[in-house]
Automatic annotation (TrEMBL):
Domain of life of the organism encoding this protein: Bacteria
Protein name: Nucleotidyltransferase family protein
InterPro entries per record: NTP_transf_5
Length: 393
């Protein structure tokens, strides 16, 4: 169900979402805003005819079942879903909470293991980002990403392999090891940008703070963990989402992650430093476009953006939201998307051609990155195969 772009008067720098959305979309964003910020959802949008099954499906597609559930709880009893769907939604949210508890417990265990062996990992994304949510346990979680760095990378992998059950193919950035029932990604390289000049700046910034007191120390369920510096993290969360968007697509949860770190840490964050990093990484345009969605559809105050958008960015923000709405979490629900074929090399070719197509279609989000991304994807894939060949010799 695509959103319809509208024409804006020259003096406007904000969007009235009600002007160009279906009723389901108005209801969905009302629930999400309520769940994110703890406000009461607009009751005038709901009645006994509300299509709650469609709202549940939309929240599932965007990986926001816990957030939308919190918003739904602010409605009067008579406007909520019928019993069967309500109980189904409750059970799903309880499972989200349980999954978060499991990941949090495993984070404590893996940090303890690494620290006992003189390795200090840095927690990336995921459960660290969840700390910025009003209810961290209601953010749908995935795996555990840890930045180890090249020095202790092999040592950390060896420690996990002692109790692992399986392992995914290693790539140029990390290896993914299934440990105690969860996936843990040990990062030798935190991430990469495809544009050489942008990546140079990105890697220099990591080298500046890694292993120093510039890192943050926070607690997850009472256990102390290390996170990247705040200004870097705010830029990195946006960068990670923008790269996923170019590669395969993202869900609204990724935009919520960015909005939450900007809002929850608004008293601490140095927005000028975050803006500087985004500009150096070639992502100032992406920040503006994501900002359109964060402000006008999620309700983030515009003054909390690191780089304010302009009127000419609004239409592109609508275009970003259209793709998010149609494709859902990591583009998995895009009905136009072809299924990844079976077979290793056919799958690799599918990934390469899809990424190339998206970079051509959506390159305006991050022009320099879109130009370089397909080439670097091929280079990194070739490097992985070359290393595998060398290991066999």
């Amino acid at each position: 169900m695509p959103l319809v772009c509208i024409i804006f008067a020259p003096e406007k720098k904000t969007v009235n979402p009600a002007d160009n959305m279906t009723l389901i979309q108005k209801q969905f964003f009302a629930l999400v805003q309520s769940g994110l910020w703890g406000t009461t959802a607009d009751v005038t949008l709901f009645d006994i005819q509300t299509d709650w099954q469609q709202l549940y499906q939309s929240a599932k597609v965007q990986a926001l079942l816990g957030i939308a559930f919190d918003g739904m709880q602010t409605l009067p009893q008579e406007l909520r879903p019928k019993r069967d769907l309500y109980l189904k939604w409750c059970n799903t949210v309880l499972q989200v909470e349980e999954n978060n508890h499991i990941l949090n417990q495993e984070i404590a265990k893996v940090f303890t293991l690494y620290r006992a062996n003189q390795i200090e990992p840095v927690l990336l994304k995921g459960q660290g980002v969840a700390l910025n949510y009003r209810n961290p346990l209601h953010r749908q979680c995935g795996d555990i990403d840890l930045y180890i760095g090249p020095k202790n990378y092999e040592k950390a992998n060896k420690l996990l392999r002692q109790e692992s059950t399986s392992e995914h193919e290693e790539n140029h950035k990390h290896t993914c090891i299934h440990w105690h029932g969860v996936d843990i990604e040990n990062h030798r390289v935190l991430s990469r940008l495809s544009s050489p000049s942008s990546d140079r700046s990105f890697q220099q910034e990591i080298a500046r703070w890694h292993g120093t007191s510039a890192c943050r120390n926070l607690e997850i369920e009472g256990y102390p963990v290390t996170l990247p510096p705040l200004s870097f993290d705010a830029a990195y969360v946006l960068m990670h989402s923008a790269l996923h968007f170019l590669n395969e697509g993202i869900g609204l949860r990724q935009v919520c992650d960015w909005a939450n770190i900007l809002h929850a840490r608004r008293e601490e964050i140095d927005l000028k430093e975050t803006a500087k990093l985004l500009q150096e990484w070639g992502l100032s345009k992406a920040a503006k476009i994501f900002g359109v969605v964060a402000v006008n559809y999620l309700g983030l105050p515009i003054e909390e953006l690191p780089i304010p958008y302009t009127e000419k960015d609004i239409k592109t923000g609508e275009w970003l939201l259209n793709d998010i709405w149609q494709g859902g979490n990591f583009g998995k629900f895009d009905q136009k998307r072809k299924q990844r074929p079976k077979g290793y090399w056919r799958g690799k070719w599918y990934t390469f051609t899809r990424a190339g197509q998206r970079c051509r279609e959506f390159g305006a989000l991050a022009p320099a990155e879109a130009r370089w991304y397909p080439l670097m994807l091929a280079v990194h894939s070739a490097q992985v195969q070359w290393n595998k060949l060398l290991n066999r010799i």
